[in-house]
From TrEMBL:
<comment type="similarity">
    <text>Belongs to the GTP-binding SRP family. SRP54 subfamily.</text>
</comment>
<feature type="binding site">
    <location>
        <begin position="247"/>
        <end position="250"/>
    </location>
    <ligand>
        <name>GTP</name>
    </ligand>
</feature>
<keyword id="KW-0342">GTP-binding</keyword>
<dbReference type="InterPro" id="IPR022941">
    <property type="entry name" value="SRP54"/>
</dbReference>
<dbReference type="GO" id="GO:0008312">
    <property type="term" value="F:7S RNA binding"/>
</dbReference>
<dbReference type="InterPro" id="IPR013822">
    <property type="entry name" value="Signal_recog_particl_SRP54_hlx"/>
</dbReference>
<comment type="subunit">
    <text>Part of the signal recognition particle protein translocation system, which is composed of SRP and FtsY.</text>
</comment>
<dbReference type="InterPro" id="IPR000897">
    <property type="entry name" value="SRP54_GTPase_dom"/>
</dbReference>
<feature type="binding site">
    <location>
        <begin position="106"/>
        <end position="113"/>
    </location>
    <ligand>
        <name>GTP</name>
    </ligand>
</feature>
<dbReference type="GO" id="GO:0003924">
    <property type="term" value="F:GTPase activity"/>
</dbReference>
<feature type="binding site">
    <location>
        <begin position="189"/>
        <end position="193"/>
    </location>
    <ligand>
        <name>GTP</name>
    </ligand>
</feature>
<feature type="domain" description="SRP54-type proteins GTP-binding">
    <location>
        <begin position="268"/>
        <end position="281"/>
    </location>
</feature>
<dbReference type="GO" id="GO:0048500">
    <property type="term" value="C:signal recognition particle"/>
</dbReference>
<keyword id="KW-0733">Signal recognition particle</keyword>
<dbReference type="InterPro" id="IPR027417">
    <property type="entry name" value="P-loop_NTPase"/>
</dbReference>
<dbReference type="GO" id="GO:0005525">
    <property type="term" value="F:GTP binding"/>
</dbReference>
<dbReference type="InterPro" id="IPR004780">
    <property type="entry name" value="SRP"/>
</dbReference>
């Protein structure tokens, strides 16, 4: 995401490398580069100009401290300004009302239905809510089926009336049903059109009038660049929505929509959607996004993803096994499974500062673990619990069972052994009182 913008900004900052101080001349040429980079990322020229004028003003007003180079100072100023442009603080969903009614609007294909499923999943698993999904698309029967499939995957009920052609009525009936069934959040997925269209707007506006939603979320495909911003304007003029959802940020988007929607419609981006899996929804944090754009990674999100998978009891058990030098293949497999649950591997690695750029052209699919898992799967439980018994003939059998070459198994065994040696060494350091604690 935003790779080309990140690269361009980085090369703009490079101009300041080696400079001892901020001067009018070096700031001017850096700022010009930043402006070009933004325009190429599909940021409207007027916004880009205003942005860089602010950056220039700030940079020239700063006294460069000896501890910080002009390059670093510029990165900090640009990061703060990018975060401010995208909204500054994160905007929370308004969930106080019972039931909370959330209306979802947007063009067809923007990712509305997928997002509705993701939002239901998020509210259920992260906020302890009992959502009801409502299929209010009366034109495409397939949309009802799609929502039902999503609902069944996350075990959330879906309300629909396939024969009813009145979307307002469906929404009203759904609210009655939710109250009866004790659902405290109602997510209404409305019909979209391929382009902004008066009949669609009127229909959504009518639903809005009838059900008085607590939130109206406008869903938009971030790959559509400036069009996304224009569509947002049209929807906001009619619906006065409360927040924006940017989808398909996992794709090759240049960034313009993410950077300028907030500025243009004065409504916050509340969520970003990064994939087709139902657990790839993130609350939008302008500051973290600015860091990612500048190649600083996003350790906060990475840690949060890890914490979501963290199970204290399991962690204690694992720690004990490592302390007693008993880490085995069963533990290894468990760890792999936990990492996989945290999300797409490349996406995760991209959150580590500096790594995103380094791996951008490398194909890291989630299949990376498959070979290892197949080898562990091909071991007997006894072998998994006692890695040391795995001799030559057992290796041959494991390779065959996993569809691998014996060299693959040898290499994996060697790596596993090195890992255990490292753990042993750390344990010894710990016993001497100079363990990891002393390092941290
Ligand atoms: P709707 O017509 O607005 O309801 O859009 P859908 O939810 O049916 O999504 C349209 C297409 O985009 C589907 O193929 C989805 O799988 C895909 N899609 C939705 N959200 C994302 C996303 O965040 N990333 C990617 N890569 N694809 C998405």
């Amino acid at each position: 995401m935003f790779e080309s913008l990140s690269e361009r900004l980085e090369s703009a900052f490079k101009q300041l490398k080696g400079e001892g101080r901020i001067s009018e001349i070096n700031v001017a040429s850096t700022v010009k580069e930043i402006r070009r980079a933004l325009v190429d990322a599909d940021v409207n020229y007027k916004i880009a100009k205003e942005f860089t004028d602010k950056v220039k003003e700030k940079a020239q007003g700063e006294k460069v401290l000896t501890a910080i180079s002009p390059g670093q100072l510029m990165v900090k100023i640009v990061k703060d300004e990018l975060a401010a442009l995208m909204g500054g603080e994160a905007a929370e969903l308004e969930l106080k009302a019972t039931p909370t009614i959330i209306l979802i609007a947007g063009l067809q294909g923007s990712g509305k239905t997928t997002f509705s499923g993701k939002l239901a999943n998020y509210l259920k698993t992260k906020k302890g809510k009992k959502p009801l999904l409502v299929a209010a698309d009366i034109y495409r029967p397939a949309a009802i089926d799609q929502l039902k499939v999503l609902g069944s995957q996350i075990d959330v009920p879906v309300y629909s009336e396939p024969e009813n052609k009145n979307a307002v009525q469906i929404a009203e009936n759904a609210i009655r049903e939710a109250k009866q069934q004790g659902n405290n959040v109602i997510i209404i997925d409305t019909a979209g059109r391929l382009a902004v269209d008066e009949a669609m707007m009127t229909e959504v506006a009518n639903i809005r009038q009838a059900v008085k939603p607590n939130e109206i979320l406008f869903v938009v495909d971030s790959m559509t660049g400036q069009d996304a911003v224009n569509t947002a304007k049209a929807f906001n003029d009619r619906l006065d929505f409360s927040g924006v959802v940017l989808t398909k940020l996992d794709g090759d988007t240049r960034g313009g929509a993410a950077l300028t929607i907030k500025y243009t419609v004065e409504k916050p981006i509340k969520f970003v959607s990064m994939g087709e899996k139902l657990d790839t929804l993130d609350v939008f944090y302008p500051e973290r996004m600015a860091q990612r754009i500048l190649g600083m990674g996003d350790i906060t999100t990475l840690v949060e993803r890890a914490q979501a998978q963290f199970n204290e009891e399991q962690a204690k058990k694992l720690e004990k096994k490592i302390r007693q030098n008993q880490f085995d293949f069963e533990d290894f497999r468990e760890q792999l499974q936990q990492i996989k649950k945290m999300g797409n591997l490349k996406d995760l690695m991209g959150m580590i500062p500096g790594v995103g750029k380094a791996i951008k052209d490398i194909d890291i699919s989630d299949d990376a673990f498959k070979g290892i898992e197949a080898m562990i799967g091909s071991m007997t439980p006894y072998e998994r619990n006692n890695p040391d018994v795995i001799d030559g003939s057992r290796r041959k059998r494991i390779a065959k069972g996993a569809g691998k070459e014996i060299q693959d198994v040898n290499q994996f065994m060697k790596q596993f052994d090195q890992m255990r040696q490292m753990m042993k060494m750390m344990n010894k350091m710990g016993a001497g009182g100079k363990g990891l604690k002393a390092l941290g």
